[in-house]
Amino acid sequence: MLDARFLTRNGLAARRLAAELLNQQPDSRLPRIRDYAQRLGVGNGTVQAALQLLENTGAVRTEARGHLGTYLRELDRAGLWQLAGLGTMLAAMPLPYSRRYEGLATGLRAAFEDAEIPFALTFMRGAQARLDALMDGKVDLIAVSRLAFEEFGEGFPIARLADLGPRTYVGAHGVLLRAGVSLDDPELAVAVDTSSADQQELTRLVFSGRSVRYVETSYMQLGELFRRGEVDASVWNLDEVHQHIDEDCTTIPFDEVTSADLADRNSSAVLAVRADDSPALDAVRGRISADLVTRTQQAVLTGDRLPSY
User: Fold this and answer.
1) Which of 18, 166, 167, 291 has the smallest set of CB atoms within 10 Å of its CB?
2) Exposed, middle or buried: residue 205 (CB in 10 Å: 0-12, 13-18, 19+)?
3) Using one digit for the tens of pLDDT, what is the confidence trace for 132-148?
4) Taking a C-beta distance cutoff of 8 angstroms, is the pair 236, 176 a contact?
5) Helices and strands (H, E) in the chain, number of each type
6) Is the dihedral of CA 144, 172, 175, 243 positive or negative?
7) Angle of helix 146-153 relative to helix 197-207, nearest 10 degrees?
8) Is the per-residue pLDDT at 247 higher than 60?
9) Which of 224, 232, 223, 239 is nearest to 94 (CA)?
10) Can you tell me the distance from the alpha carbon of 6 to that of 142, in angstroms, rounded to the nearest whole number?
11) What letter does residue 67 receive in the DSSP assignment?
């Protein structure tokens, strides 16, 4: 239950000030009282009382240094986050069916824990579903490929929190061909996943101008469709694909049938957020280490760290 002191006028200002202080570094000079007053739309006295309230709770410790200003000596980011009432940041990413996705999930958790930001993960199949959840306010952050982000970026108010670089979303995509089938065969039955912006776009590029028949499916159904002979070909994530498809098939790496730039855009993970000015997102932008995410993911891929998410 929130301390009754934070329900007063000064207390409400203290909660907003707590969000402002989340990205402040220890032993750094604080902005002037009047700057905070202007930012929060309150008087100087209210800001001073709010800062004193945060000090009394132990969330911060400041030191006045005369003409040099006031310095923040210590801060408890977890305490400030709670006082600001920002809640748990919820991130949505693909189902963790590959070790690379397990590494991404582990890296995200490690980065949020390092930033002392309450965090939870949810898993959703399909970039479009994750985007819809972000726009509806059901999640605060999503992981998609850079290709999907660029496709979405033109029509939706989303912003890039971080681009994690090539081979952080998938190792590579490739063209899967059923045994005995050639890419040049006419009337190929090609699997396409309508929930995946990446897979649809890549399939369109690879099979553009060819006489093919598209079969709507998902990666969960792909193995069965290959087994039944109902699908001849598909563009799919090659990470651990043979754990899901036990039929004999030919694999053509994607960079052999399209440009290297497109392959990189498709393999890079982008962390995206709503393009607004909420205190929670401001704090996340300033605190989350993309390098820690990728280092942790790599440690999971090499077996030096167990997945934990």
Assistant:
1) 291
2) middle
3) 999 999 999 999 999 88
4) yes
5) 12, 13
6) negative
7) 100
8) yes
9) 239
10) 32
11) G
